[in-house]
Amino acid sequence: MPSRKKTTAELYIFCTIFLVGFVFFWLHGFAWVLPQWKMLSESVSGDCTVLETRIESREEESATLYRPEIRIKFTAGEGTVVIWTYDADTLTQSGGFSTNRKTAEKVVSQFEAGKTYTCWYHPNDPEKAVLKRETSIWGWYFLAIPISLMFSGVCGIWWSLRIFSVSEERRAASNEKRKTSPLALLGGASPTLLPTVPDSRIINESPGTSLAFRLPVSSLPSLRLIVLTIFTIVWNTISWTILVWSLYHSSGARHELLYSTMFGLVFCGFGLLLTIWILRDLLTAFGIGPTLFEISDHPIYPGRKYRILVIQTGMLRFRSLSIVLVCEEIARFRQGTDTITSRKEVYSQPLFFREDFETTQNEPLRQEFFMRLPHGAMHSMVLEHNEIVWKIVLRANLLNWPELHCECPVIVLPHAVSEDRG
């Protein structure tokens, strides 16, 4: 649960992300997007005559750069204009150059002196006529960087302000509602004469291999991990495809290399971070191996003795492993406009403990032990504002792995039912 101090720091970070994206968007918009848009929307077409062609070159940092230049003549209004041009980049003194001379030669070969071609120019500024009006697609792709930063910043600011506007108690209640109660795995209340006791038939429908029933384990990979994995695959596929395509079709111009580098650092770099994060979670979820619990009978009655079997697969080195039977009381109540959720462990019974051992693929952990609830133990219960939850909890401290934590809900029937059936 985030504290106010942590939320304030996150708010500053998201504001900074938004401002950085806004500044980049503003600079790129006025420096490139707006001129390109005006050229596309306000330019008019006309006929021009090619007078001559050439390949202009210049030396820069021990490399020779080239660009195509076409000298044209056309009539604009009442005057005649003669200029060297090709596209919008060649209208500047240093634009349009690249290290690829063949690209420049290919452009020049498309024009022959004395022939007529179509050119585009602004009526108020015919001195900036071009023969190629199409803009570089990378200029538009570059907009994705500041837009992504601005979107991330807005989402983060909204979330931080939302936390500020909600009390700690209400956030706690909201978090508790999103968590799956162990009893929710069992399908709700029983339709029998015990309406407040959870239904145990789902557990009883899962037979074990050695004992009567297999218990559900609440540490399986979550839907969040599956969604993030799909998102990571899609994100990396798109971003790396665009980067490879841009580098393969690049003319070697400095601005194209700059755009490719920026795109790779932001989008492909973020994709790599997502991949590392997802791989870590997947290794934790699947690398440790499944944890299986089986029980000799179910539901559970106070005073009776039950056999429990735990099986842990995988190649693991355990520093310690403990299994405990826990009874937890959950209470939800309103205080003013806030909803408060209270969780309290009211009973704990150690069932098994072991230190410093290893498991292999051929020799997994297979341990059997006994469990007995005391007479008069409170039964499982689900009400609108209260729950009594019984569960078997496994905690393991592993070498080179995150801590392993598993919970298996069980259903305890009232003591009177135990006496009637015993």
Task: Write the SSE topology.
Blueprint: H1 4-42, E1 44-60, E2 63-76, E3 79-85, H2 101-108, E4 116-122, E5 125-130, H3 137-141, H4 144-165, H5 168-178, H6 201-204, E6 213-215, H7 223-248, H8 254-287, E7 291-295, E8 305-312, E9 316-335, E10 338-359, E11 365-372, E12 381-382, E13 386-398, E14 404-410, H9 415-421
Antiparallel strand pairs: 1-2, 1-4, 2-3, 4-5, 6-7, 7-8, 8-11, 9-10, 9-13, 12-13, 13-14
Helix pairs in contact: 1-4, 7-8
Briefly summarize what is shown.
The protein folds into 3 domains: 13-141, OB fold (Dihydrolipoamide Acetyltransferase, E2P) (Beta Barrel), CATH 2.40.50; 180-217 and 290-421, Sandwich (Immunoglobulin-like), CATH 2.60.40; 218-289.
CATH-derived topology of the largest domain = Immunoglobulin-like
Helical residues, percent? 25-40%
- Could you state the oligomeric state of the chains shown? single chain
Strand content: 25-35%
Structural class: alpha+beta
Low-confidence stretches: 167-191, 418-422
The tally of structural domains comes to 3
Radius of gyration: 35 Å
Report the sheet with the most strands, covering strand number, pairing sense and barrel closure.
5 strands, antiparallel
Describe this structure in words.
With 422 residues, this protein is α+β, with helices and mostly antiparallel strands. The chain folds into 3 domains: 129 residues, OB fold (Dihydrolipoamide Acetyltransferase, E2P) (Beta Barrel), CATH 2.40.50; 170 residues, Sandwich (Immunoglobulin-like), CATH 2.60.40.640; 72 residues. 37% of the residues lie in helices and 33% in strands. The strands form 3 sheets. The chain has a 5-stranded antiparallel sheet with strand order 3-2-1-4-5. Strands 9, 10, 12, 13 and 14 form a 5-stranded antiparallel sheet that branches. Strands 6-7-8-11 form a 4-stranded antiparallel sheet, with no helix packed on it. β9 and β10 form a beta hairpin. α1 packs antiparallel against α4 and α7 runs antiparallel to α8. The C terminus is likely disordered.
